[in-house]
Amino acid sequence: MSEIVVRPLAQSDHADWRRLWTAYLTFYETKLPHEVYDVTWKRLFTAGEFEPKGFIATLDGKPVGLTHYLYHRSCWSQVNNCYLQDLFADPEVRGKGVGAALIKAVQDDASKIGVKNVYWMTHETNATARRLYDHVARRTGFIEYDLL
């Protein structure tokens, strides 16, 4: 039986992280400058309450998924909220529990510091991910707006 292992990102994961994050961005038809990759990687290892954090998932020892998340304050709570910003599993392992394991790792990390609210967004056309999300979380009904 295949084993999914989720662990915090390590400096030695840089090449796999870059490959997985590039695939995630490609899925969303997005390209970012190399400088954004560099600053994001640096921030993932910078200490601080509000700096982003990351996990990598392996399946039988091969890196196959990643997530980025961050904590932020809220006017609705005394404790922080957790925004799960990026979640990606290689297409060939989808449906094998990688996404659910990554979400659970973020939820477990948040609960260690008393954070109960872990939330995220996805595109309405991302049917594969939405099947998982509908299974592990509740849909809030809120609609996102951006001022870009």
Give a nutshell description of this structure.
The chain has helices at residues 14-27, 34-44, 98-112, 127-136, and strands spanning 4-8, 53-59, 62-72, 81-89, 118-119. The protein is an alpha+beta fold. It is globular.
Question: Could you please describe the fold and organization of this structure?
Answer:
The structure is a single chain. The chain is an alpha+beta fold. The protein has helices at 14-27, 34-44, 98-112, 127-136, and strands at residues 4-8, 53-59, 62-72, 81-89, 118-119. Strands 1-2-3-4-5 form a 5-stranded mixed beta sheet, with helices on both faces. Strand 4, helix 3 and strand 5 form a beta-alpha-beta unit. It starts with a strand and ends in a 12-residue tail after the last helix.
Layout of strands and helices, then pairs:
Blueprint: E1 4-8, H1 14-27, H2 34-44, E2 53-59, E3 62-72, E4 81-89, H3 98-112, E5 118-119, H4 127-136
The major beta sheet can be summarized as:
5 strands, mixed
Q: Please state roughly what percent of the residues sit in beta strands, choosing from under 5%, 5-15%, 15-25%, 25-35%, 35-45% or over 45%.
A: 15-25%
Average pLDDT score: 95
Structural class: alpha+beta
The helix tally amounts to 4
Termini gap: 46 Å
Residue share in helices?
25-40%
Low-confidence stretches: none
How large, in whole angstroms, is the Cα Rg?
15 Å
* Outline type: globular
Q: Please give the number of β-strands.
A: 5
If strands are numbered along the chain, what order do they take across the biggest sheet? 1-2-3-4-5
What is the string of SSEs from the N terminus onward? Answer: EHHEEEHEH
Protein name: GNAT family N-acetyltransferase
Pfam families: Acetyltransf_1
Keywords: Acyltransferase, Transferase
InterPro entries: Acyl_CoA_acyltransferase (IPR016181), Diverse_Substrate_AcTransf (IPR051016), GNAT_dom (IPR000182)
